[in-house]
């Protein structure tokens, strides 16, 4: 069963506008972490934001915020004031807790390619 | 903090030869490192989990004898692609656990000719 689902293969947004990238996850472990990474064409994986399952507040990092809806098992990434440099692949990932096999490893979604238009 | 360095960034090798890729944690000790493979326009696929001082744990379908992983110290893990074939051409990238963070190396683009 797919554990991380990103349903948007591609998205585009106008420069300076906000965009939401969707991510849903599936786990029975009460302890888990959710990540978003940006992958430009160079291939490097750039960490954007982290949300722990017990965190009460939604995570924010500059222009990035994570809309964490635990009951819905969703962890959408919101990018405010998009910039041309935001054009890249974006991956959602989950790390399950110690009660699951494979503690520590990250499981990735299929990714969303974001294009920012001037 | 929590920087992972990966070398080489690009490598071209002939079929039948072996290629070693290094992944180093620069400012922290990484007891566990992860090796991923990524095909063009696809997501990252976990190949194996590398634990310092013990044998690596391979994901289902990954050939242990083809992809040799060594984690001899708390700051270095290596992936050796043995007897490389053109179908091994891919982007390989490593990651480490550093608290809540999971920093990645910059990746290695392997081309087997």
Describe this structure as you would to a colleague:
By secondary structure, chain A is mainly beta. In chain A, 0% of the residues lie in helices and 50% in strands. Chain A has no helices and twelve strands. In chain A, the strands form three sheets. In chain A, strands 2, 5, 6, 10, 11 and 12 form a six-stranded mixed β-sheet that branches. Chain A has a four-stranded antiparallel β-sheet with strand order 3-9-8-7, with no helix packed on it. In chain A, strands 1-4 form a two-stranded antiparallel sheet. The model of chain A has no long low-confidence stretch (mean pLDDT 92). With 113 residues, chain B is mostly beta strands. Chain B contains no helices and ten strands. Chain B has strands spanning 4-7, 10-13, 19-25, 32-38, 44-51, 57-58, 67-73, 76-81, 90-96, 108-112. In chain B, the strands form two sheets. Chain B has a six-stranded mixed β-sheet, with no helix packed on it. In chain B, strands 1-3-8-7 form a four-stranded antiparallel β-sheet, with no helix packed on it. Chain B is globular, with a radius of gyration of 13 Å. Chain B starts with a strand and ends with a strand. The chains are: A mainly beta (118), B mainly beta (113). The interface between A and B is medium-sized, with 22 and 20 residues.
């Amino acid at each position: 069963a797919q554990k991380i689902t990103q349903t948007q293969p591609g998205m585009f947004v106008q420069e300076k506008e906000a965009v939401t990238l969707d991510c849903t996850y599936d786990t029975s472990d009460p302890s888990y972490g959710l990540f978003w990474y940006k992958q430009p064409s160079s291939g490097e994986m750039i960490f954007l934001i982290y949300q722990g399952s017990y965190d009460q507040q939604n995570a924010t990092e500059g222009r990035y915020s994570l809309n964490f809806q635990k009951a819905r098992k969703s962890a959408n990434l919101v990018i405010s004031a998009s910039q041309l440099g935001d054009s890249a692949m974006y991956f959602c990932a989950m790390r399950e807790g110690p009660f699951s096999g494979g503690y520590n490893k990250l499981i990735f979604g299929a990714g969303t390619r974001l294009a920012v238009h001037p | 903090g929590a920087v992972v360095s990966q070398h080489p960034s690009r490598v071209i090798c002939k079929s039948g030869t072996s290629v070693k890729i290094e992944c180093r944690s620069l400012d922290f000790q990484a007891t566990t490192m992860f090796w991923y493979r990524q095909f063009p326009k696809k997501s990252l696929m976990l190949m194996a989990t590398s634990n310092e001082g013990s044998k690596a744990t391979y994901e289902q379908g990954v050939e242990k004898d083809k992809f040799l992983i060594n984690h001899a110290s708390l700051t270095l893990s290596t992936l050796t692609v043995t007897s490389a074939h053109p179908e091994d051409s891919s982007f390989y990238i490593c990651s480490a656990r550093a608290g809540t963070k999971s920093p990645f190396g910059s990746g290695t683009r392997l081309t087997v000719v």
